[in-house]
Structures are given as structure tokens and as C-alpha cells.
Design goal:
Blueprint (H helix, E strand, L loop, with lengths): L6 E6 L2 H10 L3 E2 L7 E6 L4 E7 H6 L15 E5 L3 H14 L2 E2 L4 E3 L3 E7 L5 E6 L1
Parallel strand pairs: 1-4, 5-9
Antiparallel strand pairs: 2-3, 3-4, 6-8, 7-8, 8-9
């Protein structure tokens, strides 16, 4: 089967806050936000992440949506060009209102990075390898 595209749909509690956070991180808007959704394209391959108000997303699902503050639903990875860029990401995330879950550090063989959560608890790691 040939998949044309894949994207992520995540639940958030505040669209304005989410839009500002990801704009501050430098993510590219994917259209204009509306009353249910804000959306961004990420990276060179322009991976799409839709952020829906939780109530709007929940209305179309037959299951509960996890509280990302309590459990990891997914861990997105953002690659950085250098250790210095990893450090810059950490500063930018903190200034934008994200929560650093770890500080930039070396780990494994040839890896350098850190983890953070956005204001709704969605988790990311940023690393250089």
C-alpha cells in the first residue's frame, strides 16, 4: 500500500497559546487558525501537526484522549544541526513557555540533546547526532 502522507492530530486546551508557542519555535503555519484548529508544517519534509481543541477532537473519536501531562502519547524528535543548535533550541523552548524535561547533555554514543513538553504536555526531544 502506498501512503501519500501522514500527519499528527493532537489535542490542546488553548489555541491562541498553542499558536503562539509553535510560532515562537519557528514552525511554519499551515493555513490560518480557526475556532477548532491551529496547524503547522515542520522540517524540510513539512510534516504537518494539527492541534485541535480537545473538545473538537473528542467529538469525532470513540475513545478518550490521553492527558499528555500525565502520560506520553508520542515522542516527536527534532534533529538539530549541531550541539550549539541544540542549546539554542533549549533557550528558545524555555522563552516560548515550554517545559524542559531534561537539560542538553551527551547520551548514548554520539548523541547530544534534551527533552521538552509544550504547554499541553506533548513531548519532544531535540538532538544532534
Amino acid at each position: 500500500m502506498n501512503t501519500q502522507m501522514i500527519w499528527a492530530n493532537l489535542a490542546v486546551s488553548n489555541l491562541a497559546r498553542t499558536t503562539k508557542f509553535y510560532t515562537d519555535l519557528g514552525f511554519k503555519p499551515n493555513g490560518e487558525p480557526n475556532h477548532q484548529l491551529t496547524s503547522f508544517r515542520v522540517g524540510d519534509n513539512e510534516f504537518v501537526i494539527h492541534f485541535f481543541l480537545k473538545e473538537a477532537l473528542q467529538a469525532n473519536m470513540n475513545m478518550e484522549i490521553a492527558d499528555a501531562h500525565q502520560a506520553a502519547e508520542i515522542l516527536f524528535t527534532i534533529s538539530a544541526e549541531s550541539k550549539e543548535k541544540v542549546d539554542q533550541w533549549a533557550i528558545t523552548v524555555s522563552k516560548a513557555g515550554g517545559k524542559l524535561l531534561s537539560q542538553p547533555e551527551s547520551f548514548g554514543e554520539g548523541y547530544y540533546g534534551f527533552m521538552f513538553a509544550d504547554p499541553d504536555g506533548h513531548r519532544y526531544n531535540v538532538f544532534y547526532m
